[in-house]
Write a structure and sequence with these properties.
The structure holds 2 protein chains of 2 kinds. By secondary structure, chain A is α/β, with parallel strands linked by helices. In chain A, strands 1, 2, 3, 4, 5, 6, 7, 8 and 9 form a 9-stranded mixed sheet that branches. Chain A is globular and about 55 Å long. Chain B has 10 helices and 9 strands. In chain B, β1, α1 and β2 form a beta-alpha-beta unit. In chain B, α9 runs antiparallel to α10. Classes of the chains: A alpha/beta, B alpha/beta.
């Protein structure tokens, strides 16, 4: 279909640095990243200076920068993987692409390097189709279309505001699963992008995503922190919680979410069995929230992403606060986040 | 791959539990290519059109053939629910089958090759899809978690990982894609060359356009809902048979807690039908669809509907109530839906098909 031209000035690439030596990570991504502006946020808990190779247009933010912007006390903590949300907050671009610092570019089935940024932006610039499932997947991809039986009134689609990419090698499996199957590697390159239907819930992994900041920036909330949250993905659920919120908000506002390409190649680190001890808390918490998100409906009066987050925070506090204080905390963080977003955005 | 020689290899899966239903008006030469995969199975051939014509079936296949005379004889006045001069007549094959599983395929669909060049045993993949659970309540970003090499991703609730029984396996097509007439007219040369190596469950509450070219299902779980409607001669519409069945099946599987998968396997679709002929058949449907879709999106089946037949009868009532005003055709269709269930129950007296309510 349409040939999408990426305007460099519309894209920020946000990297949460959980490792201080970013040299090999950045060099692997150089062919793809070098034309864009990068926002690198150093995990405030990380000791030592970041090592970043030259040849990039990068702005680096550390603990002191974070504190300067948000003040010293805030219920929103930008530490660990949540540090990247600070990047979302201060970005001024329309599109944000965010990739974990233990991922490198993948190769497709023909052996070509996958330009994850270009694919994400393409996903965001072509319509999503959440109201009816197209069996040939994304109808806006070259060589595809809507199939017989797809209602014509639904063919113009809606804006896609979130693009969820996937991972080859180490897929984003949880600790129990990876511990049970230590040798399991994802080598299946599925050549598809598809819209996740409206009202279908999904786990949005933060490892490889992109979004339209102007449309839904505030809806990506750094809110749910585990007491024992760690520095490995197995030890967090912040992105899962965030993703559940975003999907409900997108469904409410009539936006679309895509999943599938692009792939990144995720490298090994950590020990699944070790992480099991920490992750179990998160796994149990998520069980409690599924029915909540399934039935969550936002009021008609919420017409912006900020408005939706505020409403959602109220409902979370009301309905989930009594199950676990962690949810009350999450609700507070969500409220604080919206305030931050407004104040930083207007500055 | 199915091995028809006796070298101690495992027998073809579900050999005695699956029927292959093929509607045809011409010959069945295409079966020659499918022989290595289909020969162990029983075929039900539903001959459409002129019953005096002889359909040539390649030797070596175990089959039953039904033409219009047979349909009339077996169903009597109820034969009116089976379309004439349209491949929708294939659903008669579902009704007379005595097996648990059905695979249906069009006679212009051939064996496709996967990206490594190996021929795809479509039947085997459908069986795999049907025999492992679906996951309609939460979308797994790595697609079917039961496939080899895949699993549930982080964040997928453990309480939902058991899945639900799979009622339908919807396969896809390489080469000629299943486009509607307007799209065919605009893109006559487009071919589907993209092999998407995925099977996925269509989420609960989401409708899809089902295609009958390469389709398998569990007759016990969903059979009575696989009615392909009134199409062809004497009817104002065509090429909406499989889609109608698909929408009915989806609301019923959603209600009964069953799953529908789509994706692999691919077959190679060789014949592009005439887009002008198609346009004439589909024309009314293109407009009616705009009412049909909201109807299905808003259908609520009462809790008391605990079997497929009960769901289907209830659906027929709602079709009559809400769609008759779109066109009197739907009034006829609602009646035919009831006739179909009556005929199904008469030919399949062992008990109502139920899924998990």
């Amino acid at each position: 279909m349409s040939q999408v031209v990426i305007n460099d000035s519309e894209v920020d690439i946000v990297i949460g640095a959980l490792h201080s030596d970013l040299t090999s990570f950045m060099n692997e991504w150089k062919p793809i990243f070098s034309r864009f502006h990068l926002i690198i946020i150093k995990d405030p808990d990380l000791k030592g200076d970041l090592q970043i190779p030259g040849g990039f247009k990068a702005d680096v933010y550390t603990k002191s920068d974070i504190e300067r912007v948000i003040g010293s006390s805030s219920s929103v903590r930008f530490s660990g993987y949540a540090c990247r949300y600070f990047g979302f907050l201060i970005s001024k671009k329309k599109y944000v692409v965010c990739i974990d610092d233990d991922c490198v570019p993948a190769k497709d089935n023909s052996g070509n390097l996958v330009d994850a940024v270009a694919q994400h932006v393409l996903n965001l610039q072509t319509p999503a189709t959440p109201f009816f499932f197209n069996t040939l997947y994304d109808p806006f991809r070259k060589g595809a279309d809507f199939v017989r039986g797809y209602p014509f009134s639904l063919r113009s689609g809606v804006d896609c505001v979130l693009s969820c990419g996937l991972w080859l090698n180490l897929a984003d499996l949880d600790a129990p699963t990876q511990a049970l199957k230590p040798g399991q590697r994802n080598l299946r390159y599925v050549d598809a992008v598809l819209t996740v239907p409206a009202r279908a819930m999904m786990p949005v992994s933060g490892i490889n995503i992109a979004f339209n900041r102007e449309a839904v920036g505030p809806a990506l909330v750094p809110a749910l922190r585990l007491a024992g949250e760690g520095k490995l993905r197995w030890e967090t659920v912040e992105d899962i919680w965030c993703g559940m919120c975003v999907k409900v908000i997108c469904d409410h506002l009539g936006f679309g979410v895509k999943s599938g390409l692009p792939y990144v190649w995720r490298t090994e680190r950590g020990d699944a069995i070790e992480s099991l001890k920490k992750e179990w808390e998160g796994v149990k918490l998520m069980e409690d929230v599924v029915p909540f998100f399934q039935s969550l409906r936002l009021p008609q009066s919420a017409t912006t992403a900020e408005g939706c987050v505020v409403e959602m925070a109220k409902i979370v506090k009301e309905q989930l606060g009594k199950i676990d204080p962690m949810f009350s905390q999450a609700a507070e963080s969500m409220e604080e986040w919206v305030k931050l977003w407004k104040s930083v955005g207007s500055g | 791959m199915a091995d028809t020689s006796s070298h101690g290899s495992p027998p073809p899966p579900l050999k005695d539990e699956l029927d292959i239903v093929i509607p045809t008006i011409r010959n069945l030469d295409f079966l020659e290519m499918w022989r290595p995969f289909f020969q162990p199975y029983h075929l039900i051939i539903v001959q459409d059109g002129d019953p005096t014509k002889t359909i040539k079936v390649p030797p070596g296949f175990d089959y039953d053939l039904y033409n219009r005379n047979d349909i009339n004889k077996l169903l009597g006045p109820r034969a009116s629910c089976i379309s004439f001069k349209d491949s929708a007549c294939r659903c008669f094959g579902y009704m007379v089958s005595k097996k648990k599983y059905i695979y249906t395929i069009d006679d212009d669909c051939f064996v496709a090759n996967d990206p490594s060049g190996l021929p795809i045993n479509a039947l085997e993949q459908h069986i795999k899809n049907l025999l492992c659970p679906s996951t309609p309540y939460f979308f797994n970003t790595l697609y079917d978690p039961f496939r080899e090499g895949a699993d549930y991703v982080r964040g997928y609730p453990f309480s939902l990982r058991e899945g639900v029984p799979t009622a339908v396996s919807h396969g896809l097509w390489l080469n000629i894609p299943d486009y509607d007439a307007p799209t065919q007219l605009v893109k006559p040369l487009e071919r589907n060359t993209r092999y998407v190596d995925a099977v996925l469950t269509i989420p609960k509450g989401t409708l899809f356009p089902m295609c009958g070219m390469n389709l398998a299902f569990d007759r016990d779980l969903i059979g009575p809902a696989m009615y392909f409607g009134l199409m062809g001669e004497g009817q104002p519409i065509g090429r909406y048979d499989d889609m109608w069945a698909g929408w009915c099946c989806k609301v019923i599987t959603d209600h009964l807690g069953l799953g529908i998968k789509t994706g692999l396997p691919y077959i190679y679709h060789s014949k592009a039908s005439n887009p002008f002929v198609n346009l004439r058949k589909e024309y009314k449907g293109i407009f009616w669809q705009e009412d049909i879709i909201p109807f299905f999106q808003n259908v609520v089946l009462p809790k008391e509907c605990t079997t497929v037949q009960k769901c289907y009868i209830e659906l027929s009532k709602q079709v009559k109530e809400k769609l008759s005003k779109v066109d009197p055709y739907f009034d006829k269709l609602a009646d035919a839906m009831v006739t179909w269930i009556e005929a199904w129950d008469e030919l399949n007296p062992s008990g109502a098909s139920k899924g998990k309510a």
